[in-house]
Amino acid sequence: MAKVKSTCGCCRGPKDVVSSTDKSPVSITVLAGKPGAKINPAMWGIFFEDINFGADGGLYAELVKNRSFEFPEPLMGWTKISPSLAKGTLSIRNDEPFDAANPHYLRIQSEGTAPFGVSNEGFRGIGLREGETYDFSAQIRGVSDAPLVNVQLYGADGTLLDSAQLKGFSSGWEKYTVTLHPKDTDPKARLQVILQGKGAVDLDMVSLFPRHTWKNRPGGLRADMVQMLADMKPGFLRFPGGCIVEGSDLSRRYQWKNTIGPVEKRQLLINRWNYEFIHRPTPDYFQSFGLGFFEFFQLCEDIGAEPMPIINCGMACQFNSGELVPLDQLGPYIQDALDLIEFANGPATSTWGKVRAQMGHPEPFNMKMLGVGNEQWGPQYIERYKVFAPAIKARYPNMQLIAATGSDATIFPNGKAEVEYLWSQWRKLRPEIVDEHFYRSPDWFPENAGLYDAYDRNGPKLFVGEYASQSVGVASTKNRNNWKTAMSEAAFMTGLERNADLVVMSCYAPLFGHKDAWQWTPNLIWCDNLRVYGTPNYYVQQLFSRNRGDVVLPVQLSKVENLYASATRDEKAGEIILKVVNATAEAVPVTVQANGIARTGSKGTVTVLAASKLTDENSLDEPRKISPVSEKITMPGSEFPHTFPPQSFTVLRWSAKP
Ligand code: AHR
Fold this sequence. Notes:
By secondary structure, the chain is an alpha+beta fold. 16% of the residues lie in helices and 33% in strands. The protein has 9 helices and 36 strands. Helix 3 crosses helix 4. The two termini are 38 Å apart. The model is unreliable at 1-21 (pLDDT under 50). Bound molecules: alpha-L-arabinofuranose. Alpha-L-arabinofuranose binds at residues 49, 51, 241-243, 374-375, 407, 466, 509-510, 520. Alpha-L-arabinofuranose (AHR) binds at residues 49, 51, 241-243, 374-375, 407, 466, 509-510, 520.
């Protein structure tokens, strides 16, 4: 009989337990009469960053890439369409632009000898669905003569899917619109804007949107992708990242004020993931900010998530330039933070509250927390935090501040001493919440299911703000979202749940990956231009979030080697929720007991997430290969047998009246 060192789920101290080589029956006892900490309703949330075409080409439903010709190569994404008889010119101009914020536009001039114009390739193609309505719009200015403009949708194989005509252009900029109905579905279609007849027009803000967006908002978000988020019932949404907050240098940092107001006024910015990985260059990756801070707050409201914006604290990404704003010049950065709070929460009569109201949301968004910096570290961070925090608290004493611990809360790449230094400071400076990140191996996560058991209970609360099991290694292009990684995260998350008195929030990162345009893997949700699917990791997050419970219930395991458990109680439903990860290769029969309650119901639900192999994955073609399967079960009393399948994650819910 072997003994293994493990952690007691009840008292959280180290404990010798009998290993699975022992043949005596396994028991899991939920101490239902000894409820522990209240669980933050926002415990399980979402991390959004515009990486892997997460926003442009992803969640933001715009189908035209480089719609306002502001990419440094102004015709990137566009191709000249000039059949052999055609004579004409394309020129990029900036005199008398449609909008000074995005000054470039395209002039198409044709001799009229044959149709002449441009084609847009979209974001790795344009995804079109038969039977759906698409709204084309463009700012057009007539320049000479009276050419017609043909708006055409072509399939990847050259089939014309639909077309429409615009004409009668005035000599000033004007928005022209037309609707299109493709006769076929194609994930890789393209849009053509073709002049017919002699003449010239100026073109800007060329846009194509599906009519059907999330909540059918014009110019809105991809409905299927938001639905995936809504289905998680997330407690919070962290945005806009991630390293994107910091910028590789300060000129490229995320500035929320540039992301609100009319979309044509939002200035384009190069996306840091355009050039971050030389092994995955993405030269056509830019931020149009069509998904900006207003839309983020609105999304939070839509899906019932607490907004968690992260702001730049005067430091560029420390993996890149690490550029610093001198301490005596932090004023504008702090002002941005204060203005953001006013934008989110201020009355519609306040300066920034008024901007929010003008955008259609007079009521406040009720933002309660703010991250100061992303993955910052070192004394430079502390110096800046010390300026930021008092300035924010002086105006908004109830705003909960989130402070960082670099890119890994235990070691790489900052080093243990670095993290210890940060913690020594956080214990003194006492931000409400400290953010810890873990991009580690599938072994690390279960091994660290007890990580927070021994953490100091007198310091700040914890936010496990980025984590994901890396099947190969951080930033490896070979990382997979397979069942092994998902199960390892589930085991770790039982530890987060058991420690919900300390760990008040957590989220997986990154969120989205476009299969044809990603820089980073693994990701929680993958998509192409028409489809989206949740990885097994997604279903782990979803199961935790949808089975959160209100209070932690202590759990005692008679054996815990490769078996991980946590329990909570859902007050409203009057149910015990037991989560068990069986990471062994064998089914484990267990006697489940609920102690300390007078009466248990006999009805319950068991939900199992499992795969036949650890290497199994979901895919666009098999999106739910690994997904939760639920069935009703009967529990004969406060003690019942249950067999946990091999390599599985199980959620058991049963009613238990106190
Ligand atoms: O999630 C991808 C990146 O990992 C984030 O941008 C950054 O915060 C972390 O290093």
